[in-house]
């Protein structure tokens, strides 16, 4: 019988070895997946017993943990001392484990799961000693004073302000309006209260980060992209001349210039102008003709080079941002979907696309990146919100090194557009953005909405023009006779002044 | 017992200590009761040694007594008045204040019966004559039927495994094992079709997480499977996963939700492995399983060194039952096989389990003492 006994003992040992294998699988490979499951009540309690790291910017605390004792457990919940100032950026983390914004994307750092060697050793010692585990502290690039000013200027109107450093990509301001108090999420009915917040535009979207998820018709701001294609391809120069009869003929029909702010019912006519003047006074017929000449395909190619048609790289959860580009109604999902035309020459109206109407939809961050590329002599910076992450013992876990996304347009093209944008502020549609002693470059945008006489008012700008330090993009939604130059340019000026200390 | 195996009792003591520590951590009042059971278990251990100190092989003569005893013990939970249903399975009896799971003791009676019977009939069984199979099939069939009625799947699986293993050792016929395994698969498929209790267990094993809401009979509402039928399995996996490599440390594990209730039901009995896996981590439970392996190896060593067929079969049956019971419960918890509730030997909370396992150790020690004495004599 001994042969059978040896075999049976082998089988017994194999059975027990399988158990070690299975346990190893659940505790190592499958562990992370299980930890992320929503119904994981053990992980939920474990996360609540971690002292999540603070989120700070410019010396102000935007998120911190507060301990309370419940059923023999020490539970930490989040408090947001700055309330709505950067609500959509910082996001929230509820007791139930729902997270948005940086609270979601940086969760591994804030809970100390992702740390350096020193932090990991400290944590293991904390756990063994029964001490509370502390998460890493996150320092943001945001400038709270400018962020507050942006929200004050938006004054509850729907819209967004984005400001960043064109040389590094560090985001100084990312304000979205209407905003909400993230402290409400842990209160009874608090979430319902947030959903009820209504901006001036009538939509209930306080939770949405308009700076990265708000899709707006760019209007004349898009002329910067058209201009990039026209100059970069060598087909036009700033001095190229045009005759403006007040309209441009497309498909046998006239497409009129916009009306001037002073006389809303009259279409402007300029006669003989240069391309540079076309930008300065934002003449639609000039860009309509440029678009017809270079074609929609080339404009879309340049849009893509600027980063349209993909989500801008940022520290926030990708699900909270939108890609800019052409949007088309899709019957299948009964919604508007990002659309890359197979044959732009026949599918897209090149004249209207050239001055930013057609089906073009952009986010404020994308427009800020276009301006930043021009300011940075044709090289696009990678935007970032997290300056550095520091472990509880004071050692630095990570520091963000500025990165470039790559060259989009030639240096010469960028310099030419920079000069043309300075003319816009000096004596064109953007004079409201003038700052004494500082050369400001800018471009207005006034985009038609589905309601007559209500416009989305845009302004993108940077300063000082010779050595740009700050880029600002502003959009204010659905303003009655609200022009970019009158509604948004003053906001951009405020932010530039605040950030440049002028 | 001067020549008994010197490792078995220390290993049993170690496992009992680990179990008692974790039970104390999960609920000090249960640890006190478990302590009482351990005292009774040690008394049963000593009693067995004293009773059988001359020659345990006398048991061979009473094989049918053991066979019937095994059946009666299995049948007790079905009996009126003292029978009690826990978690959908009738496997408890009530005696005054104490609950008792007689199936644990029935297991040992069955092993004694099988060892004696197979020793006597092994040559004829290997030839495959039908009439010699009669009493064996009756005992086995009766056990399966009773388990089917009591819904105690874990024990059914355990008994069947022990039966197959001992049959193989006695007859050396792989074809028997293969045929019986085939029969088992067909039988379990039939049982799964026939009883909703078993079907749920299998579904919980195949897909514990459902993508859509299904009807939840507990709450009477639509809910995800992981929030209803497979809740216990899934939360137990979360508990294991949370332990990771090094564990949270004893006493630092998370077993209660923010509202204060225990996340995993039956944590100190069937699911004590998920509690240990969280607090001791992979290092801890892998070490624990190695201790089980050491125990099993010592057991098979005794079987190999024994001189007579009855002793060999008895030692093999006891050792294999120990290994297989560990596999059935831990394999169920770690999703290797469908989950069936039985206790983890020596570690789980429960009086009947503790007593049965101490008797099992006593048996192995008696066996090893005799084997070593005979070897020393020659």
Structure description:
The complex is a heterodimer of chains A (502) and B (378). By secondary structure, chain A is α+β, with helices and mostly antiparallel strands. Chain A contains 19 helices and 20 strands. A six-stranded mixed β-sheet of chain A has the order 3-2-1-4-15-16, with no helix packed on it. In chain A, strands 6-5-20-19-18 form a five-stranded antiparallel β-sheet. In chain A, helix 8 (144-154) runs antiparallel to helix 19, helix 11 (223-232) packs across helix 13 (284-294) and helix 11 (223-232) crosses helix 18 (411-427). Chain B has one domain.
CATH superfamily of the largest domain in chain A: DD-peptidase/beta-lactamase superfamily
Helix content of chain B: 55-70%
Number of strands of chain B: 5
Q: Count of DSSP helices of chain B?
A: 12
Beta-strand content bin of chain B: 5-15%
How many domains would you count in the coordinates of chain B? 1
Average pLDDT number of chain A: 90
Q: Output the CATH topology of the largest domain in chain A.
A: Beta-lactamase
Q: Considering DSSP H and I runs of 4 or more, what fraction of the residues of chain A is helical? A: 25-40%
Cα-atom radius of gyration of chain B:
21 Å
Order of helices and strands of chain B: HHHEEEHHHHHEEHHHH
């Amino acid at each position: 019988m001994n042969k059978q006994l040896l075999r049976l003992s082998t089988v017994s040992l194999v059975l027990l070895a399988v158990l070690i294998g299975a346990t190893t699988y659940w505790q190592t490979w499958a562990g992370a997946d299980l930890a992320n499951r929503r119904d994981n009540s053990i992980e939920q309690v474990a996360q609540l017993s971690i002292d999540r790291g603070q989120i700070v910017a410019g010396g102000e605390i935007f998120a911190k943990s507060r301990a309370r004792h419940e059923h023999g457990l020490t539970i930490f919940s989040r408090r947001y001392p700055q309330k709505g100032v950067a609500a959509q950026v910082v996001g929230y983390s509820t007791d139930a484990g729902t997270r948005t914004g940086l609270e979601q994307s940086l969760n591994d750092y804030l809970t100390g799961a992702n740390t350096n060697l020193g932090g990991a050793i400290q944590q293991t010692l904390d756990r063994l000693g029964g001490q509370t585990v502390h998460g890493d502290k996150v320092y943001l690039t945001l400038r709270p004073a400018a962020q507050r000013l942006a929200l004050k200027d938006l004054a509850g109107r729907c819209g967004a302000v984005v400001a960043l450093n064109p040389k590094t990509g560090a985001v100084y301001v990312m304000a979205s309006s209407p905003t909400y108090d993230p402290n409400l999420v842990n209160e009874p009915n608090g979430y319902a209260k947030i959903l009820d917040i209504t901006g001036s535009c009538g939509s209930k979207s306080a939770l949405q980060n308009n700076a990265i998820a708000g899709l707006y018709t760019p209007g004349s701001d898009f002329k910067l992209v058209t201009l990039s294609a026209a100059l970069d391809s060598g087909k036009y120069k700033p001095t190229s001349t045009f005759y403006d009869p007040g309209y441009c003929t497309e498909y046998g029909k006239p497409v009129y210039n916009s009306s001037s702010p002073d006389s809303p019912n009259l279409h402007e006519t300029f006669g003989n102008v240069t391309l540079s003047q076309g930008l300065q006074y934002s003449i639609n017929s000039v860009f309509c003709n440029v678009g017809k000449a270079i074609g929609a395909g080339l404009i879309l190619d340049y849009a893509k080079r600027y980063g349209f048609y993909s989500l801008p790289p940022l520290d926030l959860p990708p699900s909270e941002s939108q890609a800019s580009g052409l949007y088309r109604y899709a019957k299948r999902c009964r919604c508007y979907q990002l659309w890359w035309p197979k044959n732009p020459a026949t599918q897209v109206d090149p004249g209207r696309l050239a001055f930013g109407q057609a089906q073009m939809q952009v986010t404020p961050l994308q427009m800020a990146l276009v301006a930043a590329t021009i300011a940075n002599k044709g090289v696009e910076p990678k935007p970032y919100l997290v300056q550095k992450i520091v472990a509880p013992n004071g050692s630095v876990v990570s520091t963000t090194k500025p990165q470039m996304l790559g060259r989009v347009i030639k240096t010469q093209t960028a310099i030419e557009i920079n000069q043309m944008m300075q003319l816009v502020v000096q004596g064109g549609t953007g004079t409201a953005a003038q700052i004494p002693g500082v050369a400001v470059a800018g471009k207005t945008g006034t985009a038609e909405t589905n309601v007559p006489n209500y416009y989305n008012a845009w302004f993108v700008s940077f300063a000082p023009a010779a050595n740009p330090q700050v880029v600002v993009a502003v959009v204010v939604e659905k303003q009655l006779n609200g022009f970019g130059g009158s509604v948004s340019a003053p906001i951009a000026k405020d932010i530039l002044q605040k950030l440049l200390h002028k | 017992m001067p020549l008994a195996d010197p490792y078995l009792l220390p290993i049993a003591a170690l496992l009992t200590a680990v179990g008692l520590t974790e039970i104390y951590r999960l609920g000090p009042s249960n640890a006190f009761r478990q302590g009482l059971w351990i005292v009774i278990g040690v008394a049963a251990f000593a009693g067995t040694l004293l009773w059988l100190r001359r020659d345990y092989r006398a048991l061979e003569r009473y094989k049918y007594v053991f066979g019937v005893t095994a059946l009666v013990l299995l049948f007790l939970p079905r009996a009126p008045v003292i029978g009690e249903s826990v978690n959908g399975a009738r496997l408890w009896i009530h005696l005054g204040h104490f609950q008792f799971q007689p199936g644990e003791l029935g297991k040992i009676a069955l092993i004694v019966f099988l060892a004696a019977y197979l020793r006597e009939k092994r040559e004829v069984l290997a030839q495959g004559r039908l009439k010699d199979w009669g009493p064996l099939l009756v005992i086995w069939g009766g056990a399966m039927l009773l388990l089917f009625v009591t819904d105690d799947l874990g024990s059914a699986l355990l008994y069947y495994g022990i039966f197959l293993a001992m049959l193989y050792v006695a007859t050396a016929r792989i074809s028997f094992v293969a045929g019986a395994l085939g029969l088992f698969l067909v039988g379990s498929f039939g049982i799964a079709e026939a009883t909703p209790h078993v079907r749920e267990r299998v579904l919980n094993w195949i897909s514990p997480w459902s993508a859509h809401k299904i009807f939840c009979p507990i709450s009477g509402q639509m809910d995800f499977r992981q929030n209803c039928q497979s809740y216990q399995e899934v939360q137990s996996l979360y508990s294991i996963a949370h332990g990771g490599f090094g564990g949270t440390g004893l006493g630092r594990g998370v077993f209660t939700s923010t509202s204060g209730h225990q996340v995993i039901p039956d944590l100190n009995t069937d699911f004590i492995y998920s509690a240990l896996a969280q607090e001791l981590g992979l290092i801890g439970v892998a070490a624990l399983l190695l201790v089980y392996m050491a125990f099993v190896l010592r057991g098979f060593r005794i079987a190999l060194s024994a001189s007579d067929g009855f002793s060999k079969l008895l030692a093999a049956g006891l050792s294999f039952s120990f290994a297989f019971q560990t596999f059935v419960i831990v394999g169920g918890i770690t999703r290797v096989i469908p989950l069936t509730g039985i206790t983890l030997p020596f570690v789980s909370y429960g009086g009947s389990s503790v007593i049965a396992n101490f008797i099992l150790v006593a048996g192995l020690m008696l066996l090893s003492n005799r084997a070593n004495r005979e070897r020393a004599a020659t």
